[in-house]
């Protein structure tokens, strides 16, 4: 088969399957990593084979993205951190440049919906699987204790027992939570679409409930809670603003949303006031007051990161010198790994894409329902990604759901803008 006949559908299917394998490779071990590597190579061949017959989108965002990633990888080799993160950053780079291919709106929608459906499946596997094993370990501890020691320890490490934090199949509550968070955002997009079947809308609504349970109850990831909240509020706020003011449906939905919101807040506050058990559960399990001190411990980490950067302004420093895997802040992470030039390039890339997303929202294309939903999704996702980066620094180096999907959203946002410009 000639490389020139490889279609776009093949590559996006490859990307989504590769992403699913990468997120769940703990279950597959080295086999999953080998499969992922093969699919990344396939992506490289696709890019080389199609660059001559498809227009690549040259813009401030695309040029700054390419320059940023190349400089980032170069800096990793110079400062000695290449063995830890060069492979991950290169994979994000591939996802970025592939996502900047120009495709018409119809094809772009089908691509995003296909990716969304596979992410939703991954989110459901993670959520339901973790809940199921956690229920078993909680209700049947004697049965679990009969298992061999190695398997028993694996069970408790993966899920824990309720109401302890559930690690999920990734064995890390925060990694599991951010996977469910991305599943939550994509489920909202699918559930508000008119181009998907009722079956997928029902699956999406079910996954929204499972994802919220995993984020707020099972994993208790505070960053993911904030990220989910920011996405939901911004998405529906943009949705309402994009509708005609005189639209009766808009007024009814808006009133219903306000009423339900007030009702939920009142029930929550009432439960806090009258139930000591719920109050104890909320503060000690959900908010985890006893571990809030970890936030103050990040300040010395930030100071140390800045001190190390002062002597390595051009290319950053070896992350081992920090004594921690990342700087717990997205911008500080970029600064630490690639110096001031890397930070400037990333800011140009991110801010130019954010400006493009805002332009998309205000364009005439918002008259088309599906494009309106897609624009609302892209801008909301960019906002929640940046909010995630306030307290988490691994969004550009670790293979987490939001770091894998963000480059795709960045690219698609610019593709949408190009399609709008061409009418």
The tally of beta strands, per DSSP, is 0
Task: Calculate Rg over CA atoms.
Answer: 22 Å
Structural class: mainly alpha
Distance between the termini: 35 Å
- The run of helices and strands is HHHHHHHHHHHHHHHHH
Beta-strand content bin: under 5%
The average pLDDT is: 78
Number of helical elements: 17
Describe the structure.
- It is a single chain.
- By secondary structure, the chain is mainly α.
- Helices cover 76% and strands 0% of the residues.
- It has helices at 8-23, 25-28, 30-50, 60-79, 82-99, 105-139, 141-145, 149-159, 173-191, 198-218, 222-242, 248-274, 276-286, 293-310, 330-361, 369-391, 401-421.
- Helix 6 crosses helix 9 (173-191).
- The two termini are 35 Å apart.
- Mean pLDDT is 78; it is low at 1-10 and 25-29.
Q: What is the fold's blueprint, element by element?
A:
Blueprint: H1 8-23, H2 25-28, H3 30-50, H4 60-79, H5 82-99, H6 105-139, H7 141-145, H8 149-159, H9 173-191, H10 198-218, H11 222-242, H12 248-274, H13 276-286, H14 293-310, H15 330-361, H16 369-391, H17 401-421
Helix pairs in contact: 1-3, 1-6, 3-5, 4-5, 4-15, 5-17, 6-8, 6-9, 6-10, 9-10, 9-11, 11-16, 12-13, 14-15, 15-16, 15-17, 16-17
